[in-house]
Amino acid sequence: MNFIDLFAGIGGFRLGMQRAGHKCLAYYEIDKFARRTYEANFDTTSETKWTDITNVTDKEIEEFG
User: Fold this and answer.
1) Over the chain, what HEC string results?
2) What digits encode the pLDDT tens for the residues 17-56?
3) Which of 63, 36, 15, 57 is nearest to 5 (CA)?
4) Which candidate in 2, 22, 36, 46 could, as Cys together with 17 as Cys, close a disulfide (CB 3.0–4.6 Å)?
């Protein structure tokens, strides 16, 4: 299963999902310090990064479907 990690924090939800065999396609975190930690803990190079959820469009979400 693929997932989008919304309000990612430092990646607790993601860690559980990855350990269960799932793949993260995108993540959102507004806090720059939490985002830095998240990016240090996980390889996010091929993922979409959002820093302000209010700017994400329905079309962007639908592209992952």
Assistant:
1) CEEEECCCCCCHHHHHHHHCCCEEEEEECCCHHHHHHHHHHCCCCCCEEECCHHHCCHHHHHCCC
2) 999 999 999 999 999 999 999 999 999 999 999 999 999 9
3) 15
4) 22
